[in-house]
C-alpha cells in the first residue's frame, strides 16, 4: 500500500500551490470616486419587453379547498414516463432513391352524375 495522497492529486490543488498563490498582499483599490473616467459611453441596460394586457394571476385558495389537481401532466413527468416506455416501431427513413422519385399512383376520374344514373 504505502502510497501518498499527493500522488493522486494535481499539483495545483495542493497546499503548497495555494500558499504560493496567496503569499503576496493585495492592497484594496480606492473608492469609485477615485476611478479613472472612461472616454466611452456607459453601457445601457437592454430594453424591457412588457407584455400587453393585464397580468394573469392565480386566485389564492382557502386552506379547506386543497390543491389544484389538473389533468394536464407536467412536462418533467411526461419525459420520465416516455423514458420508461419501449421504443415505438417506426418505418425506416426514406432512401435517397425513394425520396427523389416518389411512387406515383394513378387516380381514376370520378364519373359525372349523368353517368351514375
From TrEMBL:
Taxonomic superkingdom: Eukaryota
Record's compositionally biased regions (Basic residues): 48-60, 81-91
Region listing for Disordered, in residue ranges: 45-117
Protein name: Uncharacterized protein
Amino acid at each position: 500500500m504505502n502510497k501518498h495522497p499527493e500522488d493522486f492529486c494535481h499539483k495545483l490543488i495542493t497546499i503548497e500551490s495555494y500558499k504560493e498563490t496567496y503569499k503576496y498582499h493585495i492592497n484594496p483599490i480606492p473608492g469609485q470616486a477615485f476611478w479613472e473616467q472612461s472616454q466611452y459611453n456607459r453601457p445601457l441596460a437592454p430594453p424591457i419587453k412588457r407584455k400587453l394586457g393585464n397580468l394573469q394571476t392565480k386566485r389564492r385558495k382557502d386552506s379547506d379547498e386543497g390543491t389544484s389537481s389538473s389533468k394536464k401532466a407536467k412536462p418533467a413527468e411526461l419525459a420520465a414516463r416516455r423514458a420508461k416506455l419501449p421504443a415505438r416501431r417506426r418505418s425506416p427513413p426514406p432512401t435517397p432513391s425513394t425520396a427523389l422519385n416518389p411512387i406515383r399512383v394513378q387516380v381514376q376520374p370520378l364519373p359525372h352524375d349523368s353517368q351514375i344514373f
